[in-house]
Amino acid sequence: GIQVEQSPPDLILQEGANSTLRCNFSDSVNNLQWFHQNPWGQLINLFYIPSGTKQNGRLSATTVATERYSLLYISSSQTTDSGVYFCAVDRTLYGNNRLAFGKGNQVVVIP
Amino acid sequence: EPEVTQTPSHQVTQMGQEVILRCVPISNHLYFYWYRQILGQKVEFLVSFYNNEISEKSEIFDDQFSVERPDGSNFTLKIRSTKLEDSAMYFCASSEDGNTEAFFGQGTRLTVV
To answer: CB neighbours of A23 closer than 8 A, spacing ≥ 6?
Structure first.
């Protein structure tokens, strides 16, 4: 199956700092999503971004599908940004999503 | 904003007991999914469901698992005889069609003792 690698696995940030999380995947994809898992375990949808660039407040994401990677940018980080960020991909063109998740980026933002 | 809702949020069960995890997908969505996350590990696909039948399942989804859409709104995951290793967070998800964004519920934390 498709392989998803996220880096860095762990990141400690000072509040206010910027960061970039990376997701590499081993095959072409038709779906790519970024999630934030908060300390209560909930998976929060951040971006649906199989290609291109999107922005939502202090977060933005870019997927370069031809080079098989996606980046998640966090600007002016806040303590509420702490948690695990997951990248998930699916290569199915027709049929159902079968998302393959990476192992996540554990982010800790300290005040 | 429409959301996927799961109940209960936390369930503790004795080994060997049957459990049913419940989900209400987003109302206009046609594809439904269950995923599992063992503590500290990545999220893993279990099964997808479309048009009242399983469309795909992973190797994790063995005979002790079953899914059902008993009425027009609920989607359930049944674990027939729970084992200690079934302890995990179970996520329900839905999508409008098979290729669009999947939305996840808040999860049910299952603890088997």
So the answer is: A4, A5, A6, A32, A34, A69, A70, A71, A72, A87, A89, A102
